[in-house]
Amino acid sequence: MTGPVFDTKGLVFRYPATLRDAVAGIDLRVNQGEFTALLGPNGSGKSTLLRMLLGALRPTCGEVLFRGRPAGEWPRDELARQVGVVAQAEEIAFPITVREFVAMGRYPHLGAWRREGPADRAAILGAMDRCGVADLGQRSVMELSGGERQRARLARALAQEPRILVLDEPTAALDIAHEMSLFELLADLVDDGVTVVVVTHNINIAARYARRLVLLDGGRIVVEGPPSRVLEKSTLETVYQWPVRIRLEDGAPQVVPEKRDAAEE
Amino acid sequence: MAGILAAVLAGLSACSPPDRSHSPADSTAAATAIRVVDDIGRAVVLAAPARRVISLIPAQTEVILRLAGPDVLVARTRWDTDSALASLPSVGNALTPSVEWLAALRPDLVIAWPDAQSRDVVKRLDDVGIPVYASRVESVADVRTMIRRLGVLLGRTSAADSLDGAISAELESVRRLVAGRPERSVLYLLNAEPPMAAGPGTYVDELIRMAGGRNVFDDLRQLWPQVALEEIIARQPDVIIRPSDRALDDPLAGLAGRPGWRELDAVRHGRVHAVDPDLYNRPGPRVGAAAHGLAQRIHAGGLPAGRDAASHDATARGVPGRGGLPPAGSGR
Amino acid sequence: MDMTLRRSALRLGGRAVFTVVAALAAITVGAAGLPAPEVIAVLTGGGDATARTIVLELRLPRVVLALVAGGGLAVAGAVFQALLRNPLAEPYVLGVAGGAAVGAVAAITLGLAAVPGLVPAAALAGAGGAIVLVVRIAARAGRVLDTRILLLAGVVVGAFFNAVILLLLTLADVESFRSAVFWMMGSLAPANWRAVALLALYVVPALVVLVALARPLNLLAIGDETALFLGARVHRVKLVAYFVASLLVAAAVSVCGVIGFIGLIVPHAVRLAWGSDHRLLLPASLLGGGAFLLLADTAARTMAAPAELPVGVITALLGVPLFVLLLRRSPGL
User: What is the mean pLDDT of chain C?
Assistant: First the structure.
């Protein structure tokens, strides 16, 4: 497969009855095999951009091409066979088991009628294994801890056997160990050739794993590129309106926000 | 809502605008069959006079008893407690009878409520081939038509004629009794809280007129309107009639002490009377007694306590049943 | 999966057998007190005329109607719960019953009830009006078939219809009032073969469509957007499920009036026992709803015999204790 996975031109989105564009002209290209992290303050348009990439929102202006074809024109099941998504929030209305929950990832492959075959079972069990929820199969998803549930959701996305994985703040509710192991897993997937796009507020962890950062502010891309280029003191201080220090750890720039009194000196 | 339900179910057989026309005596004595058109325009055809009858309507049951005696009846309702019927199986509350139970008694005639033909007993009995006479009796004229038609169906036309004649004579005597007396305004208070009165077009409205009174709410458009207490006070009825299941020792009970009600002349001067609801909510063969009793109360003090009126209360209280009323009727 | 499939088939088979046995038992009891041998004689082509009438014209259509209507209501309830992602949803929550009642009550109070078949037709028309109205209001409010807006539109339309019903009842004469109140209480008494056939004619294809939507409905339980990302055509699934389930309710209500509780409690009972997979939940609700309404109606026509009780009273009186029992036996769900 050649050419970009996602390609947007002059992408604009404004929510009805609001005065400001949530996304105000974004040109973004994501290539196969890249590990991209979208960064930016709250309300900078990260999630809106993501939902347009996934064809869940129709752009007000401009367009999103997924593999050369407008995202909104793809049949949903065809899209879902290629793109796995771990969305920001998800509320389960009725109790189902983890096994059933992960098996939903096979929907785009099975449709409404087809029964699970050996390949489907292998994908489900493999995904559960990889995300460490293999032992939770018969538990109700509602009983899981935040970390377990997040891993089950990732397992569901992996059961789709996607070439592209999109995650919206996947570690927001996780402790250090869970957060690190999730990013380790994402790095492994990238090594296997999977394209990963992740929205996160954890700049430092993004800087250590993602090869490419995209910093958004006010619905626009401020800067993009490798962490060393994006995580620059004056840019970050402008975007986040907070004094920061940049340090290098294992060759990756790490952002340390200053305490107020230190900044005032 | 419950109040409306209670009120309307209490008035089961009263009501409907007075101009509703009924074709008079459609019975045609064919050579072989008895044919009568019922109150919803259906032809009821019997090969012979009915001998196994089930009446689901108490007033109609009373008429059948008077015309043909208890032997033609094969079942009764909970409201028919006449001792002559005590041994018959009871269908219970006759509003929602089991049709298969009725069918199993193999009746040759069933008298039933018309119930607007939506999902009624009439249609279902029709479906299984049991003759049904749908009876809708809402006025004095309806009572007399009903008596004559049942007479035909039972093969007792002469008994029906004499019963009708007796009613006619009783009503004539009431008319003479009240002739020339000043018209009194009457409030028929179905329910006190909230106040609910008889409107025009009800059976009791007709009785009030026959008894020399005027329904104080005869200008409203509803059959059983809910009215404001201040409107009652503004209209100052001369007499208040309260239908009550329980024998009220004091008909004023619950009224005299209440704010508003005590402003009424009728309450202050004790012109509030309790009556048996069966007799006034349900048009039946005792229409003469009902009219006489009402005249007695409306013109209290102005009329000699006639024999009919004196005996009325006793008769009324002893009357079995409450006109096919469901328990809701007692909820007030 | 094969084991799961076999287990599901066994469970459904067990339910089906129970339902058939319950139906046979229901035919042998009734107010007329026919002895069982006579009922069997009728079923095998014998019996006297009265017994034949009672069993074949009165009991049998009623039993079948209970199965079809109860099953339809339970399936519709399960679908509405998934559609609205709300365990409190029931078949009447989106105003279908209100619309049907307005249609029926209007027909009754306008004196059109004497025309055969007009009241059910008017109820169906009213329900159809409600279905379209709710969707149009929801669509106008922005995102089409947004769950919360749909629920809100349904509740608002339902409240409006209730007001219309009260207004119609206030203006009605006594006879119409009584008819209308009885209509709204719901009853299987009007059962006849024609009504059963008409209802089945709709319920069967509706079920096929809804069961075909079982997997997408599973996905809806974890959210519209997630379902979309998993490849479901969410908008279309919701629209089809909404219309088909609503029409299912409309068809049942137009024949039997408003019978409550089945659509709420049966799907929950199935969920508690067997989980929330709609591929099992929908057929199991069909069988469970049918059996439950059959049981309730048999009680309604025999408990106070020869009078009949409103079947909705029984569904609630029977359903609540059963449900509490189920809840206690299934902790943690």
Answer: 87
Could you tell me the pLDDT band of residue C262, with boundaries at 50, 70 and 90? very high
Distance from CA of C196 to the nearest CA of A (A): 30
Q: How far is B143 from chain C (nearest CA, A)?
A: 17
User: Per DSSP, what are the bridge partners of residue A221?
Assistant: A216
Q: Is the pTM above the cut of 0.95?
A: no
Please state at what angle helix C60-83 crosses helix C278-302, rounded to 10 degrees: 140
Q: Which two tokens stand for residue B301?
A: 């003090």
Q: Is residue C52 within 8 angstroms of chain B, CB to CB?
A: no
Per the CB < 8 Å rule, is B116 touching C33?
no
| DSSP symbols for B59-94 | HHHHHHHHHH-GGGEEEB-TT---GGGTTS-B--ST
CA C69 to chain centre: 5
In the Cβ-directed half-sphere of B136, how many Cα atoms lie within 13 Å? 23
C196 vs chain B: nearest CA distance in angstroms?
15
Contact check, Cβ <8 Å, C32/B114: no
pLDDT at residue number B301: 61
If phi over 0 gives left and psi between -120 and 50 gives alpha, with beta otherwise, what is residue C50? alpha
Q: Does C238 touch chain A (CB under 8 A)?
A: no
Cα dihedral A181, A184, A190, A196 sign: positive
Q: Do the chains contact at C275 and A96, CB–CB below 8 Å?
A: yes
Identify the CA nearest to B29 among candidates B157, B163, B160. B157
Confidence of residue C108 (pLDDT cuts 50, 70, 90): confident
Q: What is the pLDDT of residue B64?
A: 96
Instruction: Say if the Cβ atoms of C170 and B8 lie within 8 Å.
Output: no
Low-confidence stretches of chain B (pLDDT beneath 50): 1-31, 117-118, 305-332
Residues of chain A contacting C85 with CB distance shorter than 8 Å: 91, 93
Question: C119: closest CA among C141, C138, C102?
Answer: C102
Q: Give the pLDDT band (50/70/90) at residue C138.
A: confident
Q: Residue B168: how many CA atoms within 13 Å on its side-chain side?
A: 9
Q: For A19-28, B33-42, B269-278, C173-182, which range has the lowest pLDDT when averaged over its residues?
A: C173-182
Under the phi-then-psi rule, with left for phi > 0, alpha for psi from -120 to 50, and beta for the rest, what region is B143? alpha
B103:C34 CB<8 A: no
pLDDT digit string (tens) for A30-51?
Answer: 999 999 999 999 989 999 999 9
Q: Report the pLDDT value the prediction gives residue B315, as an integer from 0 to 100.
A: 28
Q: How many angstroms separate the CA atoms of B223 and B228, rounded? A: 15
Asked if A210 and A179 touch (Cβ cutoff 8 Å), the reply is: no
The answer to which of A253-257, B178-182, C296-300 has the lowest mean pLDDT is B178-182
* CA-to-CA separations, B22 to B36, B140, B256, in angstroms, rounded: 13, 12, 43
- Compute the radius of gyration of chain A from its Cα atoms: 19
Q: Is B218 helix (H, G, I), strand (E, B) or coil?
A: coil
Strand partners, A37: A198, A213
Q: Is the pLDDT of residue C330 over 70?
A: no
Give the mean model confidence (pLDDT) for residues C27-33. 85
Any A CB within 8 A of C331 CB: no
Query: pLDDT value at position B119?
Result: 53
Residues of C in contact with A92 (CB under 8 A): 221-223
pLDDT grade, residue C272 (50/70/90)? confident
Predicted pLDDT of residue B312: 36
Q: Is B114's CB within 8 Å of C175's CB?
A: yes
ipTM, two decimals, is 0.90
Contact B194/C at CB under 8 A: no
The rounded distance, in Å, linking the Cα atoms of B128 and C53 is 7
Q: Which residues of B touch C166 (CB under 8 A)?
A: 1
Q: What is the DSSP string of B232-248?
A: HHHH--SEEEEE-SS--
